[in-house]
Each structure stands twice: as C-alpha cells, then as structure tokens.
Design a protein that fits this description.
The complex is a heterodimer of chains A (about 180) and B (about 60). Chain A has about 180 residues and is mainly β. In chain A, about 0% of the residues lie in helices and about 50% in strands. In chain A, strands 1, 2, 3, 5, 6, 7, 8, 9, 10, 11, 12 and 14 form a twelve-stranded antiparallel β-sheet that branches. Chain A has a two-stranded antiparallel ribbon with strand order 4-13. Chain A is globular and about 50 Å long. The chains are: A mainly beta (about 180), B alpha+beta (about 60).
C-alpha cells in the first residue's frame, strides 16, 4: 500500500488513518522538570495496545554516566535482565540482573549532557510477563539486551529513576504499536 | 536527617514521601554496590596481569576480549 495523501513515510500519526494497518501512535509526551529523582508516567499502557515504544531524549543528568532504571507500576521485584557489550577499548562488559528491583539499565545518562532511552515493551497491560528490549550507551561502553518482568500484573504506569543524581529536562514519549 | 528528593508524577512535582525516599536511596545504594564491584573486578584483573607480566593489549590478544 502507498503512503496516504497528507502523510510522509516517517510520520508518526495521532490516529490511524483509514487503510493503514500498522502505525506508531503517540500516547503521551512528558517533559521532565528540574532536578527530579524520579519521573512517573501514568496512564501510559492500556488495552488499546499490546506493544509500546518509550523514547527519552534531551535533558541532562547531574551524575555522569548514571544508568536510568525502569520500574513498572509499584513492582520492585521479579525483574530479569541481561545485556552483552564491549567497552570502546574492546573489553567484554556484560551486565545481568537476576530477580532485581527494576530494569536497571533501560535508560542512560550519557556523560552528563544527554538523557536517552529507546525501549520496546511488550505486554505491560496484559496478564502475562512484560518483555523489554533496550540498549545502554555510556561514555565508556555500549551494551544491548533486555529482559522480562516475571508476573502477570496489568500495568498502566512506569517510572524512570537514575542510579544516582537527578534528571533535568528531556522528554519522555510513549507510543503504541497498533494491534492490527 | 532524611535526605529530600523531588519526584515527578506526570506534570506534577512534589517532595518524595518517606517510602519513595527509601526506594530512591535503595536504587542509589544498589548502583553504588555495582560500581564498586566493577571497580574491584578491574583492580583484580590488573593485579593478575601485573603478576603475569602482561599488558592489557597482550591479555586481549590472549583472551580474545
């Protein structure tokens, strides 16, 4: 199918136009305030979508290379994650969390000048485990991986918390992948 | 004296509750422990390389990482 009139190939739409069977739909956009220790986005997940993309861009962190954890709802156990990576000096640098309190490296402060997260989240609002895929990029290494949250809780909210320090500025955007 | 933190819920910013402070500080402590473990591993690696008389580059050639 061709691109509908009025849309470009990379455009994210607010509503799925007739004839389009798949799209990323913007659900929410949250601007991070000044020097906050955590940011919660409520009403991010619903029965409308099974899969989501969470993107954090812009802003700054107060502590260099601090990882940003992702917590779903108020759940603080049952998170499993594994990331494989290399330092830029070509040394192996993997990271695992075995039944932890969050997805500990779902986002990142790169140096102090960039906040970022690029997370694909599957099933957070379904009564089955939530699966997450993401990468970690710091000033010394890069890793890719993901994990799952081992419960059947249906979530609507998530929270970003840096490993240390605070976050200022930046925008958290949540998109839903259309189901059909 | 308990540290104070600001938390943001959507567009509202407020002081963290005691329970939230505990969670934030647990997160900070967890990250600090991981950083210290990583540092200890790096020191142990360097100590071993020194004992074997190998440079980091030679170790990478030998171990493939």
């Amino acid at each position: 199918m061709g691109i509908p009139s009025g849309y470009t190939s990379s455009q994210v739409v607010q509503a799925v136009p007739t004839g389009i069977n798949s799209a990323l739909v913007l659900i929410s956009s949250t601007t991070i305030d000044s020097a906050v220790a955590s940011v919660t986005v409520s009403d991010a997940f619903s029965s409308t979508y099974d899969a989501y993309k969470i993107v954090l861009t812009g802003g700054v962190g107060s502590v260099s290379d601090s990882a940003i954890a992702l917590k779903l709802g108020s759940t603080t156990s049952g998170y499993y994650e594994a990331l494989v990576g290399l330092t830029y000096a070509n040394s192996g640098s993997n990271s695992v969390t075995n039944n932890g309190a969050n997805f500990s490296r779902a986002g990142q402060v790169l140096g102090t000048s960039v906040l970022f997260a690029n997370i694909d989240l599957l099933n957070p609002n379904l009564a089955q485990p939530t699966i997450a895929n993401y990468s970690q990029v710091t000033s010394t290494l890069a890793r890719v991986g993901g994990g799952f949250l081992n419960n059947s809780t249906q979530y609507t909210a998530f929270t970003f918390t840096p490993a240390s320090g605070t976050l200022t500025g930046g925008t958290i955007k949540v998109y839903g992948y259309t189901n059909s | 004296m308990m540290a104070t933190y600001k938390v943001q819920i959507d567009d509202v910013v407020r002081d963290a509750t005691p329970a939230e402070v505990a969670q934030i500080e647990a997160r900070h402590a967890e990250a600090q422990a991981q950083a210290e473990a990583l540092e200890a591993k790096a020191v142990a690696r360097q100590t071993l390389l020194d004992r074997l008389g190998l440079t980091e580059q030679e170790a990478q050639l030998l171990l493939g990482s």
